[in-house]
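Incident log, structure service

09:12 report received: a user says their structure output differs between two submissions of the same chain.
09:20 pulled the input from the user's history:
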Amino acid sequence: MAIKASIYHLTHYKYDRPVVLGPQIIRLRPAPHSRTKVLSHSLKVTPTKHFVNLQQDPYGNWLARFVFPEPVTELKIEVDLVADMTVYNPFDFFVEESAEQWPFDYPLELVDDLSIYRKAEPAGPLLQKLLDETPREQARTVDFVVQMNARVSQLVNYTIRMEPGVQTPEETLHLKSGSCRDSSWLLVQALRHLGFAARFVSGYLIQLKPDLKSLDGPSGTEVDFTDLHAWVEVYLPGAGWIGLDPTSGLLTGESHIPLAATPHYRNAAPIAGGFSAVGTPEVSFDFDMKVARVAEHPRITKPFSEESWQALNALGQRVDEELQAGDVRLTMGGEPTFVSIDDFEAAEWNTAAVGPTKRGRADELIRRLAARFAPGGFLHYGARG
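09:34 re-ran on a clean worker, output below:
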């Protein structure tokens, strides 16, 4: 059984004087296409005196538009969700035969629909160099996109950037470093220049400490944690949108919970909106994210704890005592399986279901057993499939 993990996400702005908030667009509800099952989700916004419209954007993502009719001195946004962290195989998909090899052409009926996801910005010299160095020989499509994802991961050193905005591909390649949103936008542009339909994704990333340390590589995180994250999805005919995480260089999995998937990063911001005020107010900002395991069942890599074993043994002893006190006596039965000693090489004792002597031998055996072990017992004859 899977681990169930809960996320608490807090975003809190405080103003030293009343401000007038413009409409606040909040994209913090898991997207409809999330492969990770979200068991519960709640969004709480303070001040409570507001109007809210729950919508879907043109790309199918959920968003909430909050309007505050009166000046406020704070804006507090709280998210609680519980996710089922059942592991799934990210390669569990197939690609249409027409797209198994790259380069390929998208089906005509999808070309117009995917056009917005294939619109690339002009490539600067560094991005063009990356594209020119990309092998153009025919290759398996899945292998090609996996290698492109890994290549961006190797080129860009991950860094935490607190500055707003997203770097251009040129800036990211020049610095050879960037946040998850920077490397994701670079990969989106590279894939589009190579003919793929690609989109930018923002969402939650849940990383749980593994039960066992790896013997042949990094073991991963030492503690459970969660954070806002960005990655990429590429459209492959037959497979649909496939997640690529250029931060790790791997395909996305159950740890990735998408909130918004859009053609451009500016439409995927978790929270967007402004305010106006008299003068220049001082603004304080608090941000917090927590993850907890709300249900964790024993599994092969992490069986019962010592305390659990002791409780199970104690329960078993109490059951034995009650059975003994009630004079309940248990025995074990079963069905005898046998082979004739007279003709054990015949088909009926090897490959055939029945034969000329099997039923007779079986009847003789069960009667001898009944006479010895259960005299007066009831004999039942039946067939099994």
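09:41 both user submissions now match this output. Likely a transient worker issue. Closing.
09:42 reviewer note: Residues 86-266 form a domain with the C8orf32 fold fold (CATH 3.10.620.30). The chain has a mean pLDDT of 92.
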